[in-house]
Protein: Transcriptional regulator MraZ
Amino acid sequence: MERSFFFHGGYLNAVDAKGRVSLPAPFRKVIEKRAKLSFPGGDDEDKSLKIGDFAKKGCLRAFDQTYSAKLYASIRDSVAKRGLDPIEELDAIGDMTQATFGGSPDVPYDAAGRMVLPPPLRDAAGIADLAWFVGNADTIQIWNPDRFRANCADQADLLRQLDYALGERAK
Structure:
């Protein structure tokens, strides 16, 4: 059986005026475990997330190098099933990878998880002084807390966690 590690839970972190925010420690641990399984002997210094605008939801979507590799393999396999000639296949793979990865820059984070969310991404998700990180199995969603509340009213457990985190921050 393949061993998998997933992102779970919700975490609220402050965002400063320059867009600096900390990736929650439980998510960093998952990334490290996944990297060790997927890239044995790999470079521990390559700490980054690919973060893009998840316009359909109104938040940001982030994923690590392990999920990037899965996505690319999935794209390749999907295109290969079409039975295209090699040039058409190459073009199709290029189009799909550009759409998937092109608008999602690599955002590095340090050993303490500190990273800078690029201004265009913060603007797209409406993230100002707080970021609500939500584990979504293989990916992480990064929300403006108010947007999360408006768009995810059916997620009572996460809303309770968010309310608790906001209450603790207000103390």
